[in-house]
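Hi all, long-time lurker, first post. I run a small reading group and we've been trying to get comfortable going from sequence to structure in the token notation. Rather than ask abstract questions, I figured I'd post a concrete chain and ask someone more experienced to write out its structure so we can walk through it together at our next meeting. Sequence below, copied exactly:
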Amino acid sequence: MRIKFLAILACILILTCCKQTVRNDLKLVETGETFSLIEKYVPAKKDSMKLQTDSLAFIGIQKKKPESFINEELPKSYTDRSFFTKLSASTYNLASVPGYIVKFDTSKKVYERKTLKPLIKNNKVPISDAINDGILYSNKINKNASFNASAIIGGLKVENKQMMELVVQDIVISYVPDSLVDCAAIKQIVENQIPVDQRKFYFYVKNSTLTIINNRVLKETSFNVNVNSTYVTAEGKIYNSNDKFSRERMVSVELISLDNLIDCQ
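-- Answer (accepted) --
Happy to help. Here is the structure in token form:
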């Protein structure tokens, strides 16, 4: 009987130790890893401009009557996102972003990663999917576009006597499916480690998206036929470019308040 009792006690101690290890893994820590997000985008008030665009040069371009065209706004589905600023090379590894808990530091205005590992069931990794037909915006803009030089297009700027071809395209998304969000671990952390009045500052990173900003600047010029050029007319003036598209990279994240995940299953 004594041997049986000792065996049972040993099993209890082993299970207790294992349980304690899990708890230690779920402790919020000071990782020192921080990131900033672009503040909420607010469109600037800009005037419209008469534009007419042609993909290829042709001899009668100056005789074609300009049509009224207003700089089209970026879609709300894009401008409402939370974008990283001052990206590091590691940020582009999208699979390393989702699944962590982050805390917003109100004094420094930055987010700090607070967990050492992603909170994903069965220690799985985020799913990464290529986005087919991810074009969100494709248009030509001038200096009067409300988002000209804004952070959400990587600070790209159109100057006087310039226009820009702009294509905004989602490329890859990395995410934690709802079924794999470790709700039990999140609930344990929230209830045992985060005071009620502080919970509004804690978030779960649900997904991250890589977006490419394809762009090409066209400059005001006198008309000169060149089949390799792209021409645009605006208010009787002509703009062209022989350059290839350049690319800027943007990374956005979806942050979910931990309060909204306490009751998830």
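A couple of things your group might point at:
The helical segments are 2-25, 76-79, 183-193.
The chain has three helices and twelve strands.
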